[in-house]
Amino acid sequence: VGVLMAQSLSKIKWNEMEIAIPSFLILLGMPLTYSISDGIALGFIFYPITMIAAKRGKEVSPIMYGLFFVFVGFMWILNV
């Protein structure tokens, strides 16, 4: 599984920070939290944030904004 994930790293647009930051947080979050779902949650949380910060918020689908709130709630419940 790790090799298949590593092959996908070359397809990430590392020069676009609004894409690179959430991708990096997913990569960093999985091993640091010992949880694949927590790492993915970080990506779902930070992708809309970075897109809004880059003034590209209209490119994010409404479903992604919905998932943002779902995963913020997920992280909040885990930490309560």
TrEMBL record:
Q: Where are the transmembrane segments?
A: 20-47, 59-78
Question: What's one GO-annotated cellular component?
Answer: plasma membrane
- GO MF annotation terms: purine nucleobase transmembrane transporter activity
Alphabetized UniProt keyword annotations: Membrane, Transmembrane, Transmembrane helix, Transport
Domain of life, per lineage: Bacteria
InterPro entries reported in the protein's UniProt record: Azg-like
UniProt protein name: NCS2 family permease
